[in-house]
Amino acid sequence: QDTIIHQLQKRYADLQIYTYVGDILIALNPFQNLSIYSPQFSKLYHGVKRSSNPPHIFASADAAYQSMVTFSKDQCIIISGESGAGKTESAHLIVQHLTFLGKANNRTLREKILQVNPLVEAFGNACTAINDNSSRFGKYLEMMFTPTGAVMGAKISEYLLEKSRVIKQAVGEKNFHIFYYIYAGLYHQKKLSEYRLPDKKPPRYIDNETGKVMHDIVTKDSYGRQFEAIQHCFRIIGFTDEEVYSVYRILTGILNTGNIEFAAISSQHQTDKSEVPNPEALDNAAALLSIGSEELQEALTSHCVVTRGETIIRTNTVDKAADVRDAMSKALYGRLFSWIVNRINTLLQPDKNIAESGMNVGILDIFGFENFARNSFEQLCINIANEQIQFYFNQHIFALEQMEYQSEGIDATTVEYEDNRPLLDMFLQKPMGLLSLLDEESRFPQATDLTLVDKFEDNLRCKYFWRPKGVELSFGIQHYAGKVLYDASAFLEKNRDTLPADIVVVLRTSENKLLQQLFSSPLTKTGNLAQARARVTAASRSLPPQLSAGRIKVDTMEVMRHPEETTNMKRQTMASYFRYSLMDLLSKMVVGQPHFIRCIKPNDDREALMFSHERVLLQLRYTGILETVKIRQKGYSHRILFEEFVKRYYYLAFKAHETPLGSRENCLAILEKSKLDNWILGKTKVFLKYYHIEQLNLFLREVIGRVVVMQAYIKGWLGARRYKKVKDKRENSAITIQSAWRGYEARRKYKEIRNRRIDAAVHIQA
């Protein structure tokens, strides 16, 4: 480990932030702009040997691209690291290089793909205590290519947006970027009053303890510039002006909703009734969301309960009303974000007929491991997701490889690695895993966060879970990346994530087409908005089971307005969405051949050129880089079936027209001809080091290059011969035509002279 640290530190001091460990790229965050990403650099890293250029993220993108084109197999680039290590920037650079490599004739498509990241990040990223541009959702971007390697489309999948950030942020943190951008943009366009936004005191959802929010919005140029950039993104990707206008109205509607205040009314009969004493914010929010303000007030301050076919209206307490208001804001934002992603996917999807034969490169950019002063439900989800990615890395690099050595009878030294499977089981297994216990507790109306922690303590008896003395509402987890203490207050509330049916009903009456759509489309198992289909079917799909079963024929539109709808549907929790999201994400990743990029944070102060020995060593330890070095030195990261190997590389040792069998002997012949060393033949597979594949591909490219030259010469010669034949034929044809013409002309002249002579003779005779 000393060697690795020493090398990384030396290279970092020279601003060489990239280092290879075998075929894995380590990227240290430089915390400054480097000029190594220009088009000139893109040209350097295009189909060349890895060792001929310094390590670079473009080389990893190129490796994935070349593998995809050569082997016609989907690829997957997995970028991991803790929060602030540089994952999001790395993802941008990979997309940039892949669009360069897959140059489509369609220039507008390339521009659109490059605008996707900035747009979704404005809505999905925010400033946290340790990172100014932290991803608050998981993003899997699939770039689609034709079989010849031209980019033809893209698709994003988004997971687990941290919606709770809309309504409340921790000290020193901010709301999602878009709120500040849009506020500044509308301020400079003098449109604040049109969108009912104040110009003195900021709305509650973006206000913070410093009191400088408004000052920043007015004076910071960057916000205004970002707003223009976002407008540009919308335009380039293909959103209509009407859609963008609707998005702005919903966002400003959310900000106004946050300002609605409630007060208690005490009457003789009951004290738990609430009202909105100052209707200004209520009217503003209702106007922006194009709904009636009385209906909105009613939905916030009361709720319908259906018992035995009768509808009873119950009032909400002040706290309950505030919860409903916040739940509405979260739902609005979450569904709007989903809609934007779905819309981007529709606008960037390739044509149906070519999409079938294409291949993908997937890029995973997920929120990094987090450990704050106070960690809540969101941090737990983020850290479990990272735990799962780490498990996938271990499986791929260590477990599968060592299993194959055994089954193929190869003597390779086993490398010990930190297996986090038991920890993942503690979180995910049913029925006694942490998430299952959380869901179970969420079903009891009288459960509290304290009963939840007690339940954890009783059931999770393993070394990864502990409960600190003297702090009731907290528990600790020993993650792969270190110990984290979680504060369990509001865990149940966040997991239930309830949105009262009354609010849904009111929002469906909106005159804003987009808003109507957001609440008429059902949610998928991962908690995202389903891709829009015909409106009536979408509405009926979200009906309670007994209505959609078709026993009762009901006018769908009528039922949509009925408050009974959605109240007795099976409630989905955040934990179940999270579980499905993880499954969905893994199913996408498993399909492709993985390429790993490990982002490392050199220090916690975001200082350029500062290298903290302890921090880097800790990250190398818990990400398993040290073990990776061992397995890459001793192991064989490419394991190819004999048949596949011969099919791929037979050019190197056989004549092009031969079709050799996929036998051990033929593999041997190819390997010996290519003069490689350190390979092994198993029972059914060829075992190669990480650098062999590249060498073989280069040889193959060389041979194919020679074949191409030969073909070019032969084609040239054939062409010349064909041309000579045609030329000779043309000359012969010309002579034939000329002789025919001359004969005809001579006969004509002879006839003319003869006729003249006869005439003359007749003349003389007469």
Automatic annotation (TrEMBL):
It catalyses: L-threonyl-[protein] + ATP = O-phospho-L-threonyl-[protein] + ADP + H(+); L-seryl-[protein] + ATP = O-phospho-L-seryl-[protein] + ADP + H(+). One of its GO terms (molecular function) is microfilament motor activity. InterPro entries: IQ_motif_EF-hand-BS, Kinesin_motor_dom_sf, Myosin-III_kinase_activity, Myosin_head_motor_dom-like, MYSc_Myo3, P-loop_NTPase. SMART domains: IQ (SM00015), MYSc (SM00242). Residues 582-604 are annotated as: Actin-binding. Belongs to the TRAFAC class myosin-kinesin ATPase superfamily. Myosin family. This is non-specific serine/threonine protein kinase.
